[in-house]
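User: Hi! I'm working on a homework problem where we have to compare a predicted structure to a textbook description. Could you give me the structure for the chain below?
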Amino acid sequence: MADLPQPTQARADYVKEMVHTGETGALAAPRNLDVPYVSGDGTVGATLNCTMGNWTGEPTGYSYKWMADGTTAAEGAAADYTVVAGDAGKNVSCIVTATNAEGSTAAPPSNAIAVAAAQTE
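Assistant: Happy to help. Predicted structure tokens:
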């Protein structure tokens, strides 16, 4: 009987991760592993950036929904969001949806950035 090749450490780590996460190796709708994260300055006119997080299922695309106190502020494919005057005094976060041939899955909301309240004179 011929000796079978030994698995590489990378392959062994991959198989352990599949067992740990319940992945079967077959393509399935994306599944979020790490929640997206918003960074930036919470002032009107500043740009916030949302990471996509980490996913299984080989996503082929991502879309971003920006939220201000739970209400949709902007929706589309942009990972960047410019804080507008209407966001003053609100908490801005994002929800990332990953898509592949098997479907789409939304991640839990990111952390929130508090936008400074409008100045009154």
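For your comparison, note the following. The chain has one domain: 30-114. The beta strands are 31-34, 38-39, 47-50, 54-56, 61-68, 71-76, 80-82, 91-100, 103-106, 113-114. Good luck with the assignment!
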